[in-house]
């Protein structure tokens, strides 16, 4: 039932240039998508149109050319670098006697191949079911009559109606299971909020180097490869940032131009980590000539998932692919870091990233040295419970000298116990 295909299939690629920027797609990116899906591209049929043809999308003459290419190269699938309507898919298939897969279905299939976690698989299946529900008619044209025969005459469902009902039931079941997963995620987020642990989320265009940067920072072993959508399932790790303390770093799925809306909707639960993050590290492949367009596409998706207003720090990655570019921090007029130039692969500039994180994560920290007499050892124990002690020394009189560092909010809560006594112990 699903438009799935196995690695090694032979494909004819179809790409049409349109003058309208919103309808235009990138051929090089499409070829990377095809490669990521494990399909062998035999040839590319290109053309230009002012608008899509209502019947074939590509025009009747170009459709004939595609049919000839399928016969010539003995291809078994046609991949179109655009979103097609169900009727356009059906018409091209009827003419070319070959399966047709559009850009949206191709991206969904890549996601299905990449999904590893239970949640990821459910989200991809939900997106696939939404997409395929409008295309069921293709597979059931021979079963459109009412059920009949001995014992079955009378009112009943067509096969198509039965299949649509089963799809709806499956989608309802998946949504319920995803709601349960989302509740578990919310519990984790609430626990982190109670512990005052900020979340920093990696975002960016697919294949910008997010997972490589994530692995370099966290010493994790998240799958990273030079292909589109190498990362699908989100990964969270705790890191230590100077003067900030523990920080949760989240690696998320990469974005792409014209990302299918069903896919964005299905992955909203996963992308909540991005929406509720304190800071977004927007990773950019600075060596990509299309980087400006990619930044715009990422911003569009961020706006769609209601994360467009979250503070961003641009990470100009892959400087090792450029000549005469060294690691640095670019700052705005107020001196706040806005860009960090680094190479996640070689590790150049990672120390600058940590420095920028310290400055950008707005955590007001109180630093004091407390002189605690021997008869106030209970206060010392409370400070250790807060995990805020940097150094501990003793003077000749037996007083405990504690250097503490903790968030302002926690400090004022601590003062409520016995403000006059505690303030009397403050040395600096």
UniProtKB/TrEMBL annotation:
<comment type="function">
    <text>GTPase that associates with the 50S ribosomal subunit and may have a role during protein synthesis or ribosome biogenesis.</text>
</comment>
<feature type="coiled-coil region">
    <location>
        <begin position="164"/>
        <end position="191"/>
    </location>
</feature>
<dbReference type="Pfam" id="PF13167">
    <property type="entry name" value="GTP-bdg_N"/>
</dbReference>
<dbReference type="Pfam" id="PF16360">
    <property type="entry name" value="GTP-bdg_M"/>
</dbReference>
<feature type="binding site">
    <location>
        <position position="231"/>
    </location>
    <ligand>
        <name>Mg(2+)</name>
    </ligand>
</feature>
<dbReference type="InterPro" id="IPR016496">
    <property type="entry name" value="GTPase_HflX"/>
</dbReference>
<dbReference type="GO" id="GO:0005737">
    <property type="term" value="C:cytoplasm"/>
</dbReference>
<dbReference type="InterPro" id="IPR006073">
    <property type="entry name" value="GTP-bd"/>
</dbReference>
<keyword id="KW-0460">Magnesium</keyword>
<keyword id="KW-0175">Coiled coil</keyword>
<keyword id="KW-0479">Metal-binding</keyword>
<dbReference type="InterPro" id="IPR030394">
    <property type="entry name" value="G_HFLX_dom"/>
</dbReference>
<keyword id="KW-0547">Nucleotide-binding</keyword>
<protein>
    <recommendedName>
        <fullName>GTPase HflX</fullName>
    </recommendedName>
</protein>
<feature type="binding site">
    <location>
        <begin position="317"/>
        <end position="320"/>
    </location>
    <ligand>
        <name>GTP</name>
    </ligand>
</feature>
<dbReference type="InterPro" id="IPR042108">
    <property type="entry name" value="GTPase_HflX_N_sf"/>
</dbReference>
<dbReference type="InterPro" id="IPR027417">
    <property type="entry name" value="P-loop_NTPase"/>
</dbReference>
<dbReference type="InterPro" id="IPR032305">
    <property type="entry name" value="GTP-bd_M"/>
</dbReference>
<keyword id="KW-0963">Cytoplasm</keyword>
<dbReference type="GO" id="GO:0003924">
    <property type="term" value="F:GTPase activity"/>
</dbReference>
<feature type="domain" description="Hflx-type G">
    <location>
        <begin position="198"/>
        <end position="365"/>
    </location>
</feature>
<dbReference type="InterPro" id="IPR025121">
    <property type="entry name" value="GTPase_HflX_N"/>
</dbReference>
<dbReference type="InterPro" id="IPR035647">
    <property type="entry name" value="EFG_III/V"/>
</dbReference>
<dbReference type="GO" id="GO:0097216">
    <property type="term" value="F:guanosine tetraphosphate binding"/>
</dbReference>
<feature type="binding site">
    <location>
        <position position="211"/>
    </location>
    <ligand>
        <name>Mg(2+)</name>
    </ligand>
</feature>
<feature type="binding site">
    <location>
        <begin position="343"/>
        <end position="345"/>
    </location>
    <ligand>
        <name>GTP</name>
    </ligand>
</feature>
<keyword id="KW-0342">GTP-binding</keyword>
<dbReference type="Pfam" id="PF01926">
    <property type="entry name" value="MMR_HSR1"/>
</dbReference>
<comment type="subunit">
    <text>Monomer. Associates with the 50S ribosomal subunit.</text>
</comment>
<feature type="binding site">
    <location>
        <begin position="204"/>
        <end position="211"/>
    </location>
    <ligand>
        <name>GTP</name>
    </ligand>
</feature>
<feature type="binding site">
    <location>
        <begin position="251"/>
        <end position="254"/>
    </location>
    <ligand>
        <name>GTP</name>
    </ligand>
</feature>
<dbReference type="GO" id="GO:0005525">
    <property type="term" value="F:GTP binding"/>
</dbReference>
<dbReference type="GO" id="GO:0043022">
    <property type="term" value="F:ribosome binding"/>
</dbReference>
<dbReference type="GO" id="GO:0046872">
    <property type="term" value="F:metal ion binding"/>
</dbReference>
<feature type="binding site">
    <location>
        <begin position="229"/>
        <end position="233"/>
    </location>
    <ligand>
        <name>GTP</name>
    </ligand>
</feature>
<comment type="similarity">
    <text>Belongs to the TRAFAC class OBG-HflX-like GTPase superfamily. HflX GTPase family.</text>
</comment>
